[in-house]
Design goal:
The longest helix is centred in the middle third of the chain and has 90 residues. The protein contains twelve helices and twelve strands. The protein folds into three domains: 104 residues, Response regulator (Rossmann fold); 109 residues; 172 residues, Histidine kinase-like ATPase, C-terminal domain (Heat Shock Protein 90, 2-Layer Sandwich). The chain is 56% helix and 16% strand. α5 runs antiparallel to α7 and α9 packs antiparallel against α12. 25% of the residues are buried. Bound molecules: adenosine-5'-triphosphate and magnesium ion (MG). The site of magnesium ion has 5 residues, from α9.
Length: 424
Amino acid sequence: MASSNQPFILIVDDNATNLSVLSQALKAVGYKVRLAMDGEDALAQVERAHPELILLDIQMPQMDGFETCRRLQENPETKGITVIFMTALADTNTKVKGLSVGAVDYITKPFEQEEVLARVKIHWRLKQLTDSLEQQVEERAKALQEAQLQLIQSEKMSALGNLVAGVAHEINNPISCIVGNINFMENYMNDVLGAIDLYGKKFPHPGAEVEDALDAIDLNHLREDLPKLIRAMKAGGDRITTISQSLRTFSRGDSDRKQPFNLHDGIESTLMILGHRLKANEHRPAIEVIQDYGDLPPIECFSGLLNQVFMNILANAIDTCDEAAQQFSFDDLNAHRQKITIESTLTEQNAIEIRICDNGKGMSEAVKARVFDHLFTTKGVGKGTGLGLAIAHQIVVDKHGGSLEVQSELGQGTEFCIRLPIAG
Ligand SMILES: Nc1ncnc2c1ncn2[C@@H]1O[C@H](COP(=O)(O)OP(=O)(O)OP(=O)(O)O)[C@@H](O)[C@H]1O
Ligand SMILES: [Mg+2]
């Protein structure tokens, strides 16, 4: 397209004098001009380079101006070009016909140069305004769509947060009751067993009825098994307490200011929420998660948002393992385990680095170049919105002054590196 100061105008007229007069007048005020002697010639020229505006004579041999204009309108590529027709036929029918086939205005011959220039100028201005308006509408519509999708994602996250917080809260009381009472129960049982032992010592021959009852409950086995049972119950209780704590860590971070947060807690709680997706399913064995955590200080951050980053990156890593699994047999996958490695380090630049690495499908260069783009997805409809990494990037870079980088090789795997400054 020509620069906005110098639109390119195509003048179509079978009269050489008209062409020359008009082109001189237009060139004199800075327009770039090309000339065509008939409709065919005009269409061929338009094909080669689109003008911004066409001054089109109506009466020409072979293809007249109406037909030329109709063809321009028919073609989606040339539909948007502004056409002003020129006619010596000043009757209303001609004007109406010209306008109805797609011209925006007309000039009657013999023309006044001033009038031509004025009309060209105003239509060029209108065209620029229309184009910029269309562009603005398009940009706004796109921004609106992105904002809507982001809202949906953050609503989903906050709904998940609320649900998780609710579940954690409900689990909390019963599990505290179990964990808190297990020690008392152990003591009581020891007391009871002690009392039985004492009875046994004092009355070694309590008689057939009591001896049969003791045989029936297999007291010795019970005495051996009971401590194991209590240990297992304690371990189970502790596990549920950890889960409930993780759920609360995950759901806690909706604060509007930065707070000290241990990133490992965030990663662990996210892994827990995603736990069901890591397990074996009918297509693949379980995905192994390897945590190689360094010694990290808590950092000032929006913990809820960083959990969202971990969630999006880890969910993608699981997605790619699922996709890769479709290409391999169960035996292949058993031999070549699918893994997600999470590594954290404190760098010398006083920053925290978290690398999340998978051995899934990897990405082509073309995909890699676009992973952080809004709405870029290679997943099917309903599976991916293409927002996960765009949002993660925004959270790490804009909200925390950090960086988010990707390295990937097709068929090998992918690594995301999150770098966060400690100073917040
Ligand atoms: N670990 C990965 N391995 C391979 N490709 C990946 C990986 N992570 C992201 N991608 C590619 O980047 C694209 C964009 O990821 P992003 O998380 O932004 O969107 P999405 O996962 O498609 O959709 P969603 O909005 O649900 O997260 C994915 O569609 C995928 O092609
Ligand atoms: Mg994603």
